[in-house]
Amino acid sequence: MRDATLAVVTALRVLIVDDEATARRRMHRLLSSIEGVEIAGERDSAEAMLAALDEDDVDVVMLDVQMSGMSGLDARAKIPEDGPYVIFATAHPEHAVKAFELGAVDYVLKPVDEARLRVAIERAKKHYAARPAPELRGTSALPRLAIDTSKGIVLVAPDDVSHAVLEGALVNVHVSEAGASRAYVTDMQLVDLEKRLGELLERVHRKAVVNFAYVARLEPQPTGGYLAHMKNGDRVEISRQSARRIRRRLGLT
Known about the structure:
With 253 residues, this protein is α/β, with parallel strands linked by helices. The chain has two domains: 12-130, Rossmann fold, CATH 3.40.50; 145-249, CATH 2.40.50.1020. The protein contains seven helices and 15 strands. It has helices spanning 21-32, 46-53, 72-78, 96-101, 114-130, 190-196, 240-249; strands spanning 12-17, 37-43, 60-64, 85-90, 106-109, 145-149, 152-156, 161-167, 170-177, 180-186, 202-205, 208-210, 215-220, 226-230, 235-238. The strands form four sheets. It has a five-stranded parallel sheet. The chain has a five-stranded antiparallel sheet with strand order 10-9-8-12-11. Strands 13-14-15 form a three-stranded antiparallel sheet.
């Protein structure tokens, strides 16, 4: 989930993805000269980029279109809706139409012109500024939540779910019942849990959702995110991107 205003965007974290080392070096040099840009790293393939997005907070991906292996266009389709914005870099202007169909913020032609790149980065910033805040959520109407575990199906009250975290291939759903806390391990995906309890849970990381009724304290992190201290003593990482949205929801600047 991505939402921010320019007031809280100190710098756009940009990931450079190109299978040519010379192209990556040039892009790195050009981006480094633009104020308000932080280089989040470089990757030489679409596959490596997708793996990086699971581990790091990235605001914008500078994505080459034609690469060995998966193309940039195919990779864009695999980036989730709450993932980073994409600016394509291509030597072929005929890719522009497809790029915008896939929701790209912009595209730049190779060899990349610094002035044109600045325009593309400004467009990305404006997308952050124009993104509306989501409406406040109410309470869930589901009578019970069914959690399929290795020991059977556990039924819990939706309001008792405090948070859920993806660990490896499985999800730990943490439940607080009658003052006691326990975790249920399930192969249910976080996105499915969000669909069923979307009025209660807030996506705070690609690997975590949280019920803010159970958050005791938010500890700022050097990355720009937070560490959520839950009332049961657990700690949940809140990504830099999600932190922006949460600050706005909480009325913080």
